[in-house]
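tool_call: predict_structure(chain=1)
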Amino acid sequence: MDGVEQRLDRVEQRLDRVEDELCEVKEGLAEVRTGVNTLLEWADEVGGTIAFPLPKMNL
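tool_result:
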């Protein structure tokens, strides 16, 4: 029985580490999602300037 309990303890420790890493991945994903959304909003705003070309100026 002691062997089984030791094995279960090791499995639990590994699962705890996996849960911690998964939390970090979720946090990182949230940051990436925010950044992508910001870039998409910026691209939508800037995209309209392409249809509005500025004339060339001779100096």
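agent: The mean pLDDT is 88. Proceeding to next step.
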